[in-house]
Structure formats: C-alpha cells, structure tokens
Design goal:
By secondary structure, the protein is an all-alpha fold. The chain has helices at 4-7, 31-55, 72-80. It has one domain (28-92). The chain is built from three helices and no strands. 0% of the residues are buried.
Length: 92
Amino acid sequence: MDLRHSLVVKPGSRIKLKHLDAASTGTCKSSTEAEQETAKNRIHLGELQQKLYGEKKHALLIVLQGIDAAGKDGICWHVMQAMNPQHVCSWL
C-alpha cells in the first residue's frame, strides 16, 4: 500500500477533513492482508533505520499528534518493534 500519494498535502494547499474517509482501510481487504503488509513495512523500516544510523549524517524525528485514545501508543508500539534499540538516540 503506497500512501505517499494519497495522504500528502502539498505546501500552500488547503484540505477539508470532511472530504477524507476516516474509515478508509487503504487497499487492504482483510486483517490478514493488513498484517502481512505491516510485517513487510516493518522489515523495510528496520533496513532504512540501519542505513540512516550507519551514515551518521541525519536524524529522524517522528511527531504524533492526536486526542486522547487516538491510538498513538499503539502506533509507537508497532513502529518501535521494527527499530533496533542500539540505533535509537534520545537527546532530551
């Protein structure tokens, strides 16, 4: 599932949230298909993290914004499963 084209908002453009389908499941037709897609994306994310860490030139900041019970914790849990803790730095 390539969401880059469907979810990108171009700078300076305006969107109306009422025109977006909040119940969209993308191209996945079943939970099994979604789980397979997620597993594939986790592997790819881990590979990208390894390359980013190896270059030691750039950092990645992920910002999640949402109201309480929006699912931010679940997203963090699923994303961090793909990460190698040795390649994660915290500068707080």
